[in-house]
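Bumping with the actual sequence this time:
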Amino acid sequence: MLEVDLAQMREAHKTLAEFTYELHPVVRGYANRTLYINLSDNSILSKPVDQKMKDTFTGGRGFGLWLLWNAVKPTTKWNDPENEFIVAGGPIGGITAYPGSGKCTVLSISPQTGTVIDSNSGGYFGPYLKFSGWDALEIQGKAESDVIIYIDGDQGRVTIEEAPLEPVDSHLINRIMTEMFGETPKEMRGISVISAGAAADHVAICGVNVSYYDPKRDEVRYKQAARGGCGRVLRDKRIKAIVVKFTDMGGDNNGCADIELVRKAGRRINKEIAEFDASQNDMRGTGTPYLVEIMNRFDLLPVKNFRFGAHQDAEKVAGHVWKPRYDRRGPDGCWYGCTMACAHGVPHFHLRTGPYKGKAVFVDGPEYETLGAVSSNLCIFDPDDVLEINFYADTYGIDTISLGNSIAFAMECYEYGILNEERTGGLKLEWGNADAALELIHQMARGEGFGVIVGQGVRYQKNYYIEHFGADPALMQDIGMEIKGLEISEYISKESLAQQGGYALASKGPQHDEAWLIFMELVHKQLPTFEAKAEALNYFPIFRTWFSLHGLCKLPWNDITPVSNKTAAEPAKVPEHVENYCWLHEGVTGQPITPDGIIEQSERVYQFQRLFNLRMGFGTRKDDYPPYRAMGPVTVLEYESRQERYDTQLKEEVGIDPTGMSTEEKIKALRKYREDRYEQLVDAVYKRRGWTKNGIPTLETVQRLGIDFPEVVELIQQHA
């Protein structure tokens, strides 16, 4: 139990609005209504979900995009009251017979990108929201004081409550809410909380934490919808927490059309996980940190702001280091029945810094992306330092990908003399300085010092250093590892043209969950032509969108592979698992679907999101370029660290003999070649996606998909 007076906190609550609704079961994956809350006037409404909305946008991310599209204007900024904070699960989400079925998607206008952002999370919120009667939650307006939103799916009641006494940091408030609204262990299991910590009051690079109660460990754990600043939006609306309660879990809360078909798919994947996981990726034993050793071996692990792809100390934070430190007291799935069970954590970690110094805490993670961002990219290789950063980033609400890239950018600028101790407030931002990195994080949470500048992200820093410190704009652009305002996730893409496109052509910004093609191109040599790369950059982003429509995790799709994959014509697609998803869709909704139908379902939403960007003033060719460091070596040091590789490329690929050339001349020649190839790639991808040369979906494309709404047609015509 926490050393807090829950009764006193509860007593201080003032109910600002109350809404009661009729409970009814989910039917074939849908609750068939969404919940709308406006904090400016404390109104609460139920909105119907009709068949056209389901046919066009499916659920999850699709529902969220449609609701947000109708709520905002082209001029809406992230901190305008009309901006929304949206959470949506999906029709398949919440099943317990298939692993990875507890996802939800959070959407808003981003403080980092200025356009729509989507970010997904595990935890229990998405399924519980649906089982409580709502396919999506839509929050608009701003509260006058700090509030909690409580959705009671047991009683059919929604309240907005003034909450003056609760702390905001997630490891505290998520526990408090779980105990306040869940009086028994069963009720605590039926609580899920969304929150963001203290940093979200001050800096842009903040997401939200989505909780679930772990009874085996008596821990309120959480996963993150971290990307793009949705936590900043949450706190700008003065929301301390969103709480959902649903305790009546059974074997089929989805009202499946054919539960046996769902179980058929589940039996097949669960058997494969049991047989093959330990020898393939060991997700149940090690989780995503297994990738550290692999990425380091293939020169793909970000080091020193993505300058290099390997480091001799990477083994100090590799999977084998974390495996013995994990808590093994219970299953590690972040939703019921997930046999992939990759949500590992470290117990009884004693903090050495910050406001919770000396406290023993449970640290969820670290995940690979966190290790790439705040460990190798900063050259911080002490596991305890990494755990400290991991914990504070999570409880303060900071996205670890954006955090690592933002600090790495500052450290490189410090190395070049653009920053100094006077400008950083006394901080020595040297590679490997964990204490300085932690101090920046604590400053973000306090809203003071140089940490507030770093916490606005790489794009903000670039402009700030140019304006205030006279930094070279070209250098800032080349080494600032962001695209569209969002920091690049943690893979070196210099030698993978397809991955450069995967990052730069992604809808929301450079996130690996849209298209991860490095191994297809570099290891398996499956993408030799521009046409092959374009086909992959059409199929995989669209296919991966499908998971966010339905409330599913992608890991069971391709992080375990069946025996049949060895002889599959297109092994990267894992066709047997695609068949599983066809079974799941039919089993839940009653509607048969083919692999092509999956793509059609997803493409509607994918193309619509591109148009949403266009509506918000983005989404043309000029927005689809990566910084050059994502394409090739920027500095002499970078080139010379891999000189043999680059000299060979100049000779064999570019047709230039590098003998006698200076390193600067070599860099220039290689850059022209790589930038020309990128332009060719963009042309090929745009053509394959049905876009104009400027990256705008054509009228024929939107007509084919049935998203040719009058406002969409008008938008396309304006940019013709």
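The tokens above came from a reply further down the thread. The chain has three domains: 6-245, 286-325+344-487, 492-560+594-720.
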